[in-house]
Amino acid sequence: MDTQWTTVIKPKASLLSVDFGELWQYCDFYRMFVERDIAKISTDGLPQPLFYLAGICFWSCFLKCLNLTYKTFVENAICSAKCISRAWWFLWPLQPAT
């Protein structure tokens, strides 16, 4: 069955095109949220760039460890399934009789 499409949906511009004029119109809006949410965090005397850089570094390290752990489980799923099925057969006699 060969279907001819009559409507093709395409983006108006490329993915990397950014309308900087529109971003500039809303810069006060963005600044309001930054001042409301971020500027009120106490840095306990540390310079703010150093404080935020430390937080970003910590978050990046945590995220990388989480992604590597996830990747390990995905790549070794077959091995884990074999171990679990073998453990099930080992523990099967211990199940209560119905």
Attribute tags:
flat; mainly alpha; 98 residues; 4 helices
Q: Give the DSSP E fraction (strand runs of 2 or more residues).
A: under 5%
Q: Report low-confidence residues grouped into runs of 5 or more.
A: none
pLDDT averaged over residues: 79
| Count of structural domains | 1
What is the SS-derived class?
A: mainly alpha
| H/E element sequence | HHHH
Major sheet characteristics: none
Question: What does this entry look like structurally?
Answer:
0% of the residues are buried. The mean pLDDT is 79. This protein has one domain. The two termini are 53 Å apart. It is flat. The protein has 98 residues and is an all-alpha fold. The protein has four helices and no strands.
Give the arrangement of secondary structure elements.
Elements lengths: L19 H6 L1 H11 L10 H28 L1 H15 L7
In short:
The chain has about 100 residues and is an all-alpha fold. It has helices at about 20-25, 25-35, 50-75, 75-90. It is flat and about 60 Å long.
